[in-house]
Every structure is written in structure tokens, then in C-alpha cells.
Amino acid sequence: MDPLDFTDRVVVVTGGTRGIGAAIASAFLAVGARVLVCGRNQPSTVVPDFVQADVREPTQAAALVAAAAERFGRIDVLVNNAGGAPSTVAATASPRLHAKIIELNLVAPLHVAQAANTVMQQQTGGGVIIMVGSVSGTRPSPGSAAYGAAKAGLHHLATSLAAEWAPAVRVNSVVPGPVAGDADLRLDPAAVARTVPLGRPATPAEVAGVCLLLASPMASYVTGAAVAVHGGGEWPGYLADLRGDVR
């Protein structure tokens, strides 16, 4: 039996119409899953199953999960991918902007996870919830303080839900570093090569691959974990120039 065969399993991916979310949806589709994606706007390209939803709104988050359960009869995997934030200086950003960033990156995943858990707890086989976090939630994030704080909260939320909702539901986090094509990042290839040990950003497909692993039977005893997908982390600025000397 192929542990990466997701035939007839149902996967919901929030923010699944572009970037990392689209790569995650495509990865699950490629291994046979039935995939439903959501976004705030209609996608510019055709996607298999789409629900227009702003998951910051609790009623829309609940409606998304209800639509998936009604359409497919169950939900096996939820990937809470929707998120992001513009670069902004904490000292002058408006209270409304900070609130919206935290709503999208922390509160919305909780809303969707609550609704999905209700379905998963009642079905044979339970389910898996994956939070897409960020290294911004593991270290200082000047220029994205609210976003980093929200992602730190998301990582902690996953550990708490994993404890509360076991054994039927496993909850884990994927923690990407810089990802190529991320619209919220202005990546300087030279800077990434200089500071990331693997010398490049991740591809969206590489983040998606870790989601596949965590959703599969190969990770059946993994819950409450945060899996870093960051190319080895980031060398501190004052040590980056020493990289060539320590190899």
C-alpha cells in the first residue's frame, strides 16, 4: 500500500488559488485526493473545486467547511494556508491594520480548524490539520511585527489543539523560511544565498511535499510538531561572512 496514495481522501486548502496554497492543492491532487480550495476572490485560472470565502469571518469559515462536508461527505485534511501581510513599521501602522493581520494569520485558522474538527471527530479515521506558519514566528521580525507575533501564536495554537483534539485529530505546523514567488517577500537572491545554508529559497512544491508527509500515514504518530522548511535557518548577520571559512 502506497502511504502517499490519497485516493478518495478529501483535502481543504485555504488560500489555495496561488503561491504556496496552489502548490499544496496541486500536490494533493497529483496523489489522488479530492481537493477544495478557497480564496477571497474568484481565481483567474480554473481550479477543481472552489469556494469564495473570507476566512477571517467566522460564518464564512464555517460555511467553507460545511460546503466541503456536503460536497464530499467528509474532510480528511485541512491545510490552513491563507495568510500573509504587507511590510509595515510597527511604530506607525494603524490599529486596524494590525488587527487585520492578526485576524488573518491567527484567528482565521482557529475558526476554520474548529469547524473542521467538529466534522473530523465524528467520522471514521478522524483527520489531520496542518497550519502553515513562518520562520517570522520563531525569531525577531522587524517590519512585520504583527505578522511574526501572529505566526508565533499559530505555532502555539497547533500544539494546544493537538493536545485537545487527540487522538482523533492530529495537528501540526509547517514552518517555511523564504519561499520563491512569495508575493509578500522581496527576496534578494544574493542575500538568500549568503544567509541561508542551502543557498536558495524553498520552492512552493517543497513546502507542499512536507504537507503531504504530515498528512500521510507515515506521520501517524506525529502531532503537535512544527516542521521547519527553511533550508537550515538563517546565519546571523555578524556570522554570515564566515560561512566560507567554516566549511
UniProtKB/TrEMBL annotation:
Biological process according to GO: fatty acid elongation
Instruction: Please verify whether the record's keywords include Oxidoreductase.
Output: yes
Q: Which family does it belong to?
A: Belongs to the short-chain dehydrogenases/reductases (SDR) family.
Q: What is this protein called?
A: Short-chain dehydrogenase/reductase SDR
Q: Which residues form a coiled coil?
A: none
Q: Where is the signal peptide?
A: none
Source species, please? Salinispora arenicola (strain CNS-205)
Keyword list, A-Z: Oxidoreductase
Gene Ontology molecular function:
oxidoreductase activity, acting on the CH-OH group of donors, NAD or NADP as acceptor
Taxonomically, what lineage is the organism? Bacteria, Bacillati, Actinomycetota, Actinomycetes, Micromonosporales
UniProt domain Ketoreductase: residue ranges: 9-182
